[in-house]
């Protein structure tokens, strides 16, 4: 006998049980459902595969909050099935990685997103309007947008992908920021340098002060170099006075003995050069 959504072992297994298990991250219920012969980890109901139900935060039960460990455990159960397809799209063509890129809003969500990537998610797959996960993370990243963008970049995602409207991830982020008046504005703007450092093309013009400075420098690489020059100059100890007077030892910079090339490396390592 299999477990139902209510957990009553005396009931026959309901085909909807495994979908409900994915929506609510019910590990025990999913384990029992998958154990029944003929039940596929790729089963779909209403155009939604299990991996998307597990990844989406749109379901009421998930909006109330679920145990992050249970969510990861459910994914692990799916991954143990030999025919599991982490890239199975919904009826609109979007995949789990697209849902997570757009809706992940916490560190726990990002951890789950990383687990989906580790499971083989195609980070360059296109969905509706030919948009990739990078488009979604850049345009609807929320307070942790830069974290999601960085995760995707490390997984090999392109920052230059173009959707059917001609938009890149950076152009969508800029549009989102221009229409944002709330507290998410700073978070959206943090996406800019992450994309630029990974090779995103600069716009011809921009109203954002940071982007204006990068455009004036000619490229992100040039801007980062100039930024490093300024920071290094600020931390470089001043030469001794020309009149020969010695400064108090307490006022001598501890960096005075550091070779210039080493100091430059220290500055580059310690600061997000080019990111502000």
TrEMBL record:
SUPFAM superfamilies: Ankyrin repeat (SSF48403). InterPro entries: Ank_Repeat/CDKN_Inhibitor (IPR050776), Ankyrin_rpt-contain_sf (IPR036770). Keywords: ANK repeat, Repeat. The keyword Repeat applies. It comes from the Eukaryota. PANTHER family: ANK_REP_REGION DOMAIN-CONTAINING PROTEIN. This is Uncharacterized protein. It comes from Pelagomonas calceolata.
């Amino acid at each position: 006998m299999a477990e139902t959504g209510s957990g009553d072992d005396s009931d026959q297994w309901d085909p909807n049980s495994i979908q409900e298990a994915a929506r609510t991250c019910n590990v025990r219920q999913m384990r029992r459902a998958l154990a029944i012969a003929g039940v596929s980890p790729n089963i779909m109901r209403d155009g939604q595969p299990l991996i998307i139900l597990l990844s989406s935060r749109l379901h009421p039960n998930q909006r109330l909050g679920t145990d992050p460990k249970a969510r990861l455990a459910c994914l692990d159960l799916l991954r143990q099935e030999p025919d599991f397809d982490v890239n199975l799209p919904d009826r609109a063509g979007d995949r789990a990685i697209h849902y997570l890129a757009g809706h992940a809003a916490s560190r726990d969500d990002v951890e789950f997103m990383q687990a989906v990537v580790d499971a083989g998610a195609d980070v360059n797959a296109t969905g509706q309007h030919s948009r990739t996960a990078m488009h979604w993370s850049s345009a609807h990243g929320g307070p942790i947008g830069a974290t999601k963008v960085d995760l995707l970049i490390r997984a090999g995602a392109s920052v230059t992908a173009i959707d059917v409207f001609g938009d890149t991830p950076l152009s969508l982020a800029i549009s989102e920021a221009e229409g944002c008046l709330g507290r998410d504005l700073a978070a959206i703007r943090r996406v800019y340098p992450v994309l630029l450092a990974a090779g995103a093309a600069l716009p011809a013009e921009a109203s954002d002060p940071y982007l204006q400075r990068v455009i004036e420098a000619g490229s992100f690489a040039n801007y980062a170099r100039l930024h490093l020059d300024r920071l290094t100059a600020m931390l470089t100890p001043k030469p001794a006075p020309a009149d020969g007077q010695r400064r108090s030892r307490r006022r001598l910079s501890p960096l005075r003995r550091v070779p210039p090339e080493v100091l430059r490396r220290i500055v580059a390592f310690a600061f997000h050069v080019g990111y502000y």
